[in-house]
Amino acid sequence: MNYFFEPVNLKQWNMFNNVKNINHVEHMLATKEMKLNDIVLLHVGKQCRNKESGIYSWGVIVKEPYILRNSPSEYCNNKNTVDVKIKYIDYEKPLILSKENKLFNQYRTVHKLQPDELKKLEKVISLEIFKY
Prior knowledge:
Elements: E1 3-8, H1 15-18, E2 25-29, E3 39-44, E4 54-67, E5 80-89, E6 96-97, E7 111-112, H2 115-124
């Protein structure tokens, strides 16, 4: 199983408005190396002034990479896409604050976490992510 960092631009896709409950399935940008049951960590960056920068949600890939077609209203239209089932979301505060835990670089696109980043992550949180 692999873990991926997915930056979320709330101006393009506001997960706090769109994800109404756990098990919600959403299209997200993908890399070709993503597989079923990989974990995706959703990170809100500094572009949103009313939210602290950090990871607010995580989900599980339920459909491997494909090109999303005929969905012009979707951000992922005509792009490499995976379907992610949301397993955790906090609408108020991040699960992991970016400023307190320098776990990841501020990646601009979806990015696979490296072993050293995963070791840091395991020290910071003990969640369902690692039991899943």
